[in-house]
Description:
Layout: H1 2-20, H2 26-48, H3 56-71, H4 75-87, H5 107-111, H6 115-122, H7 124-131, H8 135-148, H9 156-177, H10 180-206, H11 220-226, E1 229-231, H12 234-241, H13 247-252, H14 261-275, E2 280-282, H15 284-299, H16 309-316
Parallel strand pairs: 1-2
Helix pairs in contact: 1-2, 2-3, 2-10, 3-9, 4-8, 6-15, 7-15, 8-10, 9-10, 10-15
Pfam family, one: FA_desaturase
InterPro entries: FA_desaturase_dom (IPR005804), Fatty_acid_desaturase (IPR012171)
Domain Fatty acid desaturase: 23-282
Amino acid sequence: MLIGILLVALGGAIAGFILLGDSWFQLLIAGALGLIFTQFAFLAHEASHRQVLESGPANDRMGRAIAAGVVGISYSWWMTKHTRHHANPNKVGKDPDIDFDTISFVEADAAKQRGIMALITRKQGYLFFPLLTLEGLNLHYRSMGTLFARGPVKGRWIELGLIAARFAVYFGAIFWMLPLGMAFAFIGVQLAVFGVYMGASFAPNHKGMPIIPADAKLDFFSKQVLTSRNVSGGMWASALFGGLNYQVEHHLFPNMPRPHLAKAREIVREYARTLDVPYTETTIMQSYGIVIRYLNRVGLAARDPFDCPMVNQFRRV
């Protein structure tokens, strides 16, 4: 049912694009496409977890077709990165989602930044959402880097073919239908909305939750629950975030389909209470506030030691 709704939405956006023609209202279509592509990415994510179809290979075929052919990112790159994340969420040296990439998620990375990167890092919490406007471009870049890198990549040529076909149709239609400036604006808006929506959907799940040191050992339940955060909102949040609002349950039962996560939540909350393991759930706005404060706190590690007023006074003397 979900894929049918998304296909209708995509068809409506394409129809609107054709009917509007040479008009700056096309930027509304671009924004809509950013939202639709993100929803397709959620569906590919669910397929990667074997939640959609009965067999693993069928889910992989579906996930690869959606990720590469519709969204334009590498399914193999995503699978490799995401599998490592699920095995060790928020663990230093193990979770690629907390590796440095413009944003520093641990103080050790923040302290290494120099020059312009240090300036960004010091205010990275406030800059986090503006920087997400570039995340769509970053996702395409990193997935293509994997496909062109040396070493084995499952389905490399299939994905390259799907991505090439997708971008040929996408860019071909845009530059054929729209004036040059409008075409670039259309692509920019679509990528910005896609990046912000993707980042705003994944950031509340783990950012600002405990970081596990590289040498620490935790049992599976504690590791997954302590590092994950749910977002309240029920079915509306589930539709908006593709089920990622039930992040605790998703990490405990990664193959569980989206409709069952709400029921699992009640069981997991009670079990966590009996084990005295903290179970975190906040509203979406509270979670964003936590993320911003956490990133700014980490960013203080990039502060120039001579920013201290007392030290500056002695320097002048």
